[in-house]
Amino acid sequence: MYSNVVLEIFKNPKNAGRISKPDGIADNYNADKTAHVEFSLRVDSGIIVDCKFRAQANPYIIAICSTMANMVTGKMISMLFLDQENIKENLGDNSDLDITFCIDCMKMAVQDYIEKFEKANKNKQ
Question: Which of 40, 64, 67 is nearest to 51 (CA)?
């Protein structure tokens, strides 16, 4: 049912947890999938220097979140692009995974950072 890669990531997820005082955060719940996902970001000079996730979901969602957290770390916010096929390839699974739910949550965390950054810059002026 699950690929070996998905099972390994599920058993030993990387970047699990929550960043205290994050620069960007998002919390997404999907009742249809009975999944709850949270991403928190630390950003320095426009680069995601740390990304953590918390999830109550099936092994696929947890593996997707862990993979995405690894993929975005070290990337510039302005250049962030999350490709479903690349995520599937990293998981070694080409099944019809609901990756968009996790991608949407990551986008909300990035948007939260952007809004906080813009507000802080506006207050400095």
Answer: 40
pLDDT digits (tens, 9 = 90+) for 34-69: 789 999 999 999 999 999 999 998 898 999 999 999
**How many CB atoms sit inside 10 A of residue 38's CB?**
21
Q: Are 77 and 114 in contact (CB under 8 A)?
A: yes
Q: Decide if 113 contacts 41 (C-beta within 8 A).
A: yes
Return the DSSP state at 56: E
Q: Please give the pLDDT value at position 96.
A: 66
What's the CA gap between 97 and 84, in Å, rounded?
Answer: 9
Cα–Cα distance for residue pair 19/66, rounded to 1 Å: 14
- Find the largest Cα–Cα distance for the chain: 55
β-pairing verdict for 24-30 and 35-44: antiparallel
- Can you name the residues that pair with 16 across neighbouring β-strands? 53
Tokens representing residue 34 in the block: 């009975």
